[in-house]
């Protein structure tokens, strides 16, 4: 009725509000189909809200990868794995917030801390080990995030406190400042061979038994990333049992 009247009176706002309504319905349908695929639980309803909140402004990661990080984060909590939560390659903090959320209380009390490392200048230049294709895709400056956005998402979600450490700078200059405390969960999302390699060399041995290492881009056309991870495991004489939710990001549970 109101549409008819508005059409007659030629009121343009009606079309806009209809378009918005349809786009909301389409978005809801997309989220619901995602939730049905993963199976619902109370935790996942929180996850659903966080994904809706964080994408695309604060994270580049697709929902399945965010779900994987969230599940692993909940898993270290349930199993009482001690240690901090680390992300190398933060962009605007969406994935980091989702990893931190299950540990709100422990972070507040200082029992667990969060360290977030990024240049906030985007990627450095790829090396020859990243292959010719990546020279254009993961070019210098790719995925440049803003540190203020990281603070913003943590504050908006009620998580910002002094135990969230956001460390700006190139990994070659910042990772050595990590206080060598235990790590329960580390997400390495740094796109490139050299960047991934330095994260592994500096931090991976601090991951505790039962803790997780998560590698974005493993096995994809980002060949440098895969190479750095394979070389790391070879150097430690580990044949890792890598698992994935979506074939773009893999996790390894440290079992020794
Ligand atoms: C794909 S983005 C990270 C995406 C993020 N995890 C998310 O949730 O959207 C990769 C990030 O790694 C950072 N980065 C890559 N190599 C780096 C290096 N050597 N030192 C510091 N930061 C680096 C870039 O600045 C970029 O923000």
From TrEMBL:
Alphabetized SUPFAM superfamilies for the sequence: S-adenosyl-L-methionine-dependent methyltransferases (SSF53335)
InterPro entries (alphabetical): SAM-dependent_MTases_sf, TylF_MeTrfase
Pfam families: TylF
Top-level division of the source organism's lineage: Bacteria
Name of the protein in question: Macrocin O-methyltransferase
């Amino acid at each position: 009725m109101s549409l008819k009247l508005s059409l007659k009176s030629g009121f343009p706002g009606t079309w806009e509000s209809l378009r918005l309504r349809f786009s909301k319905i389409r978005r809801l349908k997309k989220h619901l189909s995602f939730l049905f695929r993963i199976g619902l639980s109370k935790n996942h309803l929180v996850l659903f809200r966080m994904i809706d909140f964080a994408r695309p402004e604060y994270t580049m990661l697709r929902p399945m990868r965010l779900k994987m990080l969230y599940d692993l984060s909940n898993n270290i909590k349930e199993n009482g794995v001690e240690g901090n939560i680390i992300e190398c390659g933060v962009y605007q903090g969406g994935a980091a917030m989702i990893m931190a959320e299950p540990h709100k209380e422990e972070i507040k009390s200082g029992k667990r801390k969060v360290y977030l490392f990024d240049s906030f200048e985007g990627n450095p230049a790829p090396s020859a080990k990243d292959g010719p294709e990546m020279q254009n895709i993961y070019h210098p400056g790719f995925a440049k995030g803003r540190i203020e956005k990281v603070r913003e998402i943590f504050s908006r979600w009620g998580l910002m406190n002094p135990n969230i450490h956001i460390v700006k700078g190139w990994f070659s200059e910042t990772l050595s400042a990590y206080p060598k405390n235990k790590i329960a969960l580390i997400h390495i999302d740094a796109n490139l061979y050299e960047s991934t390699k330095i994260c592994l060399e500096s931090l991976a041995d601090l991951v505790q038994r039962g803790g997780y290492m998560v590698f974005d881009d493993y096995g994809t056309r980002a060949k440098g990333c895969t190479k750095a991870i394979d070389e790391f495991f070879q150097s430690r004489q580990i044949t890792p049992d890598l698992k994935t939710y979506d074939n773009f990001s893999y996790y390894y549970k440290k079992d020794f």
